[in-house]
Structure formats: structure tokens, C-alpha cells
## 1
Amino acid sequence: MFTEKRRRLILELLYKNESVYVNDLAPLFNVSKETIRNDLNFLTQKGVIKRCHGGAMIENKTLNAEAINKFDATIIDFFKKIKTYKENTPEKKRKKMSGKVCILGSFNVDIIANVGRFPKGGESILSTDSIIGPGGKGANQALAASKSLADVHFVAKVGKDQFSQFAYDHLSSSCIKSMTLYQHEEAKTGSALIYVSQQDGENMIAIYPGANQCITDEEVFAITPELANADIFLTQLENNFSATLNAITIAHKLGVNVILNPAPYSPDALQCLHMVDFITPNETEASLLSGIEVNNLESAKRAAECIKEQGAGCVIITMGSKGALIFDGKKHEYIQAFKAMSVDTTGAGDAFNGAFAAAIAKGESVVQAARFASAFASLAVEKIGASNMPDHDSALSRLSQYNGK
Ligand code: RIB
């Protein structure tokens, strides 16, 4: 591990525990006690911490000191902001929800081919239609949450290529209330090649993440005010994981409920489960997270228990037309799927996640929120295009068909 990273982790531990000890840190980081003493002396010289017998304590008073600016500005900013926002946003955030959702995620340009069936390797087939449209799990979820009447702040990064203006125009003219859209000098705007089968609306997707994976630490720390202001922080796994992890850490420390949609699956997700209040894998992701193949309700229950054991808060496994399963650590709750005339399942998971986040942010129970999200997603699969989301009233009307089973 690089020195800077270790020092940063020591600061995180200090923030959490208020004091750390050389004897504990050396085996933890697998380095000598001398190395740890050097780290603590370095941080002390920068005025960030103060030494105490056998270790160090956080030196809050010095957080504004000039000396700190000479150290790592991003780390200091992080602690300053967290400290300020924590003081101003106590636990009440968990009690009084006001419908505010902050989403960090991807923007992609979706290039969609409608096909009678999926091509085999080496085969060329004709598609019946070709559409270029907005997509990316983050952007789709931000739209879904906004259409579900949440007050959304969306954070994403695009390139400076021919697609960046397209991204800006789409997002700024949408119903998403506010956004932070970063631009990378060289990386391309993310894109996704999507086949949609006309047989059943199923899809195959190849994602090129591009600028989505270039979000810097500074860019994440800069959104601390938006995180502090949110009732819910929702994210996925299409960005560089360092950014996702930093944002989850900040939100968690601020007492903001975190929803992680672990899509597309990456084992990185396991690193942050202890800070995640709700995790929303589909069957494939749940299988990979748990090592239990999910193909029916019974296996979903076992997978949910296993994911919960690994540290996640509430587990919600989405199973498409088979419904969804909630496990909160005590009991399992099955949410039935709503009947739908499916033409394009692309973005169905995004519809569910955005709608679920919106409902939770408005103070609904997990079961109510999952039912609403399920109704919302059933309408989304009836529309072509991953970002094509239904409106709130239509979802309420479909929800009223719920028969309680
Ligand atoms: O979930 C659907 C989305 O996945 C598409 O919009 C595509 O861009 C990929 O991110």
C-alpha cells in the first residue's frame, strides 16, 4: 500500500475512533512500528493530529489551520466538510425525510439495435431498427427518481467529444432538478451497445465506461454539500470504484441512507457492504455476491441471508417478472411483479432503483417503496429505450392493481 493511502486510512480511523495506537496500526497495515511512527509524526507536523502516549489523537481545532493546506487538500477538505455537515445535520435526517435523493452514476450514449433474435458469434444479422439515445445506469436512475417526484441531484462525468453536448442537453432539459456534470479532457463519454430482442424484450449490453471511470477524489469531495443535503444517496458500479467508495463513505458518515445497486457486478461491492443501508442486486448479481445460484424464491432467500451476513443493511433482490424479495435481517417479504406487456427490459432495474430511492426518500416503508418501484418498473418495460421512464401517476394507478398477494 502506498504511503499516502496508508496515511489517509489512518486519518479515517482517527476520525472514527478519535485515537489510534502504534501497536494496533503496525499489524493492521503489515508495516513496522517505525513506519507507523513516521506516519503519525508526518501528520502531526502538518497539524492534522496530535501525538499521545503510544499513538495519536485527532486534532479538530487545527482543521482550519494554514498548515493543513500544505498537506493533502482533498483529505483536509473531506474532514472539514464532514465535520461541518455532521454538526448541522444530526440524526434527524433518518427521521424526517423530505424526498431528496443524490445520485452518483454513469451517463452513457446507448446505441440500440432491435433484433429478431440475438446474433451468434461470427454472425451478421439485420436489425429492424437502430436508435441512439441517452442511457447509463446513473442517468436512468436519476430520471426514474425524478419521474417518481423526488428532488434529485445527479453527479456524472462525460468527455469532451461529440457525445458530451448530447449528454448535457439531455440531462439539462430533463426533469432532474440539479446536476454536477464533470468533463474529462481526454476520456470519451461512456457508451453502450445494446441488442434488444423482439421475441421477449430481453437485452444484451456491452458498456464502454470511458469518462464515467475518471471521477477524481476531489470531484467526489466537492459534492459533500449535496450528499449532506440528501435523504438518500443512490449509486451503482459503472464508475471507478474509488469514487463510489469515497461517496458511500461520506454519505454514511453524514448519516445519509445509502442504496447500492451492485450493477454491473464487481467484487469491489463487498468492500462497502457495511456502509450500505439497502442493496438491490438482480438475480445474477445476487448469485455472484452470495455464491448461491438464484433461480427461484427459495434460493433468493438463502442468497439474501448470505449477503446480509456480509454486512449489508436491507437486501432487496429484484427478479424481473418473478417479483422481488426483501430481507431485512429478520423476515423475508415477497413483492409480486405487476403484469406488463414487455417490449424492452433495458433499464428495468434502473426504473426500480430510481423509484425505490424516491419512495424511501419520501418516508415510505421498505415494503411500500418496493411495491411502488415494482409497479413503476413494470411500466418502464412497456417502453422502448432504457431512459424512457413512466410518470408518477401511471405508476400509482398500476400500484392500485396490487392485490395484496
Ligand atoms: O441498465 C441499462 C443501462 O446499462 C443502459 O442505459 C446502458 O447504458 C448501461 O449502462
Note: The CA atoms of residues 7 and 42 lie 9 Å apart.
## 2
Amino acid sequence: MTNKPSSSLTTRIVIAMIAGISVGSFLQWLMPDQSDVVVPLYLFDLSIRGLLVDGVFEVVGKVFVASLQMLVVPLVFVSLICGTCSLKDTTKLGRIGGKAIALYLITTAVAISFAMSLALFISPGEGVNMVANTTFESREAPSLAQVLIQMFPSNPFQAFAQGNMLQVIVFALLFGISIALSGKAGERVASLFEDFSVVIMRLVTVLMNIAPYGVFCLLAGLFTDVSIETFGNLIKYFLVVFVALVLHATVTYPVLLKALTGLNPLIFLRKMRNTAIFAFSTSSSNATLPITMETATKKMGVKNSIASFTVPLGATINMDGTAIMQGVATVFIAQVFNVDLTLSDYLMVILTATLASIGTAGVPGVGLIMLAMVLDQVGLPVEGIGLIIGVDRLLDMTRTAVNVTGDSMVTLIVGKSENQFDEEVYNDLNAGQKIEDIDFSDLKHN
Ligand code: ASP
């Protein structure tokens, strides 16, 4: 371990983000509309797009996301088992689960109501003349009974293989409870899992150290092909969603946090920086899960017994940012197609979007699939999604950052209310920073 300045990794990640966006935007300017620049060299012609965008950026970016995803199932399984075993009284699980689920659903409903009000006020779709040129198939919203049945895995290994997070959570909880009930044998298994947990968390920190390269390549690749100039008619829609997302993260969350815990919300926002950048770069709450977990436990001081449960649950069922996009999109599409929605339609949208977010994994673009369900419920044309799909990538990145911020906030509230929280760690601005900086020369010393 080194004694480097403690903020160095965070600084490197922020620099990587800015550099990635700048390089990508420069390449976008140099090669608009997916064109290419070919540099003739002595022996061969060098394609900038082939070498950088489809080469280095694509490979490093994809490898980085895959390595994060690789950790998700083992991390959730192992830390949830440790969390359940360490709860002295496993009957508390029901109360913790109830609080977390209620907070997740309420914040999502607040988010979508706020987003729809803002959209109705600004009317981003009024006077817009657009024709949908993409077709979109809607899926049926799952019923509550279906969601409940599907939470129980008939084969846990299949749940692991498919990364079905709710099923993994249920299996890990049952397994953890049984360990706690198994006396001496249970203690031996529990201590093995504690060791596994240390090793897996170490792997997370190892990956954090290559994160600046991953973040740079992901963002440079994305910004080469995303251009704000082409947004045209959609700029108003884009801005309404964007502003609603920013307000939700910087006003609603801090106010809620302060009101429910009394903690300083500025510290919370500051500590969320790294996690939000990961979410922004990967567009996936799931892939960001290892980082959210590390931030919640090591930087914010929430005990693993709570975070191991609420963070994966949040990555799966809590999508405030996604709900915000869906609220604005519904209003926008209704305005473009000149459909008047009634109050009960709006309530229906809130209900469907909140329920649809349960059981839908946090992966890129899933918000649009859920939007199809929402539109269907109120009789709006699902093809409307074709109108907004062009600007969805950037919004997906931003809303994912909001989604993980919501997961962390609820984790903090539940942790504090259950007394499973260390306020000293929370208030220490350098908490958790040192372990992020791994000196690989340690390997030689061991
Ligand atoms: N990408 C989002 C997430 O992973 C979900 C979505 O809105 O598409 O949280």
C-alpha cells in the first residue's frame, strides 16, 4: 500500500472523463456522420476510425465493462451471505427489506411525478412535427404475481448464469439465514464466506485502478458518434429530461437525506462522484454495482449487513432516473401525437413506471423497453419511442448516474435508521480512498 495523496484515484477518474469527452468530441468534429480519416503512411494507410474508435476505444471499453460485470454475481452472492449472517437477528431482514422497498418505490413515484409536471409546464412536444421511422414492439407489463413467482429460482445456478439479480438475492438470503441457524457448521461456512468477501472486494479495488483507462476509452468512443448538433427538434425534450435528472439528484436527494437522517448532503454528493462517473460511462447500474457497494460501505460508512442487501436490490428495482425519462417522454409523445391525457392516465403512468422498474435489470437501454409498457398502458403509440431513440444514449448515461445515486441514498437512510452506520467514516472525506490506490509492487513483497 502506498501513501500517495489520497484523492489521486478520484482525480484520475475525473480527468479521464473530461479527456474522454474532449477527445471524442474532437473526433466527432473531425469525422462527422461516422466518416473516417485515413492517414497515408509509407507502407499502408492508417484509418483513424479503425485504429481508435473501432480499435482501442472499443476493445478497452468493452473489456472494462465486462470485468465489472464479471464481479456482480459473485459479489452480490458473497456479501449478501456475509451480511445476513452478521445480522444477529435475522427477523430484522423483513423490516430492512420493507423499508428499502418502500423508499425505492416512493422515490421513483416522486421522480416520475416531478418529471411529468416539469414536462407539462415546458411542453417540449408542442409544435413539433415528427414522423416516427422506427417500429418498436411493446412487451406486456408483468403482473405483481408474476414478479413474485419469478423471484424464486428453481435452479440457483441458472440464476447465477443468467445474472438474474432478484433470484440471486433471494437464494443468498435463504442461504445466509440457514448458515446463521446451523451452529458450528454454519460458523465455519460463514468465516469462509467472510474471507471470500475480502478477496472479492480486493478485486473491485484492483479494477478501480484501471478505471481511468476504461472510463476514457468508453467516453471517447461514445462521444465520437454522439453529436448534440443533430438533436434538432429533440433538443427541448433532451434538456427537460436532463434538467429534471440534475434537479432530482442535486435537490430532491439532498433534501430527503437531510430530512430523514440529518446528515450533511454535500458530503454525500461529493462521495458519489466516482460512482456516478462509472454509471455515466457504463450506462449500467448493474455493472456499477461493485463500485456502489464499495462507496456505500467504505466511504459512507454503511455496514455490509445493510448495503449488501439494499445496493443490489436498488440496482435491480430502483430506477428514479429512468422514471424521469419515462415521465417526460410520455408527455412529449402525447403532445407530438396530439393526444390529451387525463389525470387518471397520468396516475396510470406513475403506477406502471414504478412497478415496471421492479425486476428489470439495470443494463443499458432497458428504460426504453419499459417505456413501451408505459405507453401501451395509456394507449399512446409505442412507435413514439422511435422519435426519441436518437438522443437516448446520452440520457441513458445521465439517468444511470441518478439511478445509482438513489440506490446509495436509500442505503444510507436505511443504514442510519437501523444503527448500522458509522458516522465518523461518513464525515471523513478521505475514508475509503487509500484502499482504492493499490500499489501492485505489493505483490512482490508478499
Ligand atoms: N441504464 C439504466 C440503468 O442501468 C436503465 C435505463 O434507464 O435504461 O440503470
Note: Residues 283-285, 319, 322, 362-367, 396, 399-400, 403 surround aspartic acid (CB under 6 Å).
